[in-house]
Specification:
single chain; about 220 residues; alpha+beta; elongated
């Protein structure tokens, strides 16, 4: 909506009143409304066109990218997980629920693997969940197939390393994929705004640090 058009309409009302125009107050309001209608219509049309362009981008993205998979898990004994029901379990849940973690989405999943490395606490492992895939959805474009880190756990060395049975891999239908992509577009706008204006992530409230979705070699070189 054009600020100049609104201003012009308001000025016209003021001038008419000062000159003692014979138009009634109702006539002046009607005139102002008529003057503003083109500006409102133009703004609405512009927003509608932008929405159509975004929907077309999403449609193409869904069509041109590989199958999208949802990765969920339940790993107990994780020192970083919230304490509940007498234990610490790192578990995903849909929809997002307090005390649980959100799933991860990857391109073209083809198996999972857990890898250990020394944690900063001597008696613990940092155990990484890796998915053989074409990378993580949150990075945008698919990558070359490989093992990519999607989650880390802090587990006692005396405990048992998780197995693929602790993980569920589900391919999304085209409709589910569409919804996930649409939500990601919305979240990206909020995230970009938060990072640009406040320097922190909208999802965590923290300053982003380091890369995500690392390969095994990249992951082993990072500090736990």
């Amino acid at each position: 909506m054009s600020t100049r058009k609104i201003f012009t309409a308001l000025v016209s009302i003021g001038v008419a009143l000062c000159l003692g125009a014979c138009q009634s107050e109702r006539d002046l309001v009607a005139q102002a409304e008529n003057d503003l209608k083109p500006a409102y219509a133009a703004a609405t049309d512009e927003q509608s066109q932008k929405d159509k362009e975004v929907q077309e981008q999403i449609r193409q993205y869904v069509e041109e990218t590989p199958n999208l998979y949802r990765i969920t898990w339940k790993v107990c004994g994780d020192g970083n997980a919230p304490y509940k029901n007498g234990t610490r379990c790192n578990e995903t849940k849909i929809p997002p629920t307090k005390g649980y973690f959100e799933p991860v989405y990857v391109w073209g999943a083809n198996g999972v693997q857990f890898v250990n490395k020394q944690d900063f606490v001597r008696n613990f492992w940092t155990t990484g969940l890796f998915v053989k895939s074409r990378g993580c959805f949150n990075l945008g474009k698919p990558r070359e197939e490989g093992l990519y880190n999607v989650k880390n756990f802090m587990l006692k060395k005396t405990g048992t390393t998780p197995t693929p049975e602790n993980v569920k891999v589900e391919v999304l239908s085209k409709e589910e994929k569409q919804k996930v992509v649409e939500q990601a577009f919305k979240d990206a706008e909020v995230e970009n705004y938060a990072l640009t204006n406040f320097g922190v992530s909208a999802t965590t409230g923290l300053i982003p640090t380091g890369k995500t979705c690392l390969t095994v070699d990249e992951w082993k070189k990072t500090q736990s």
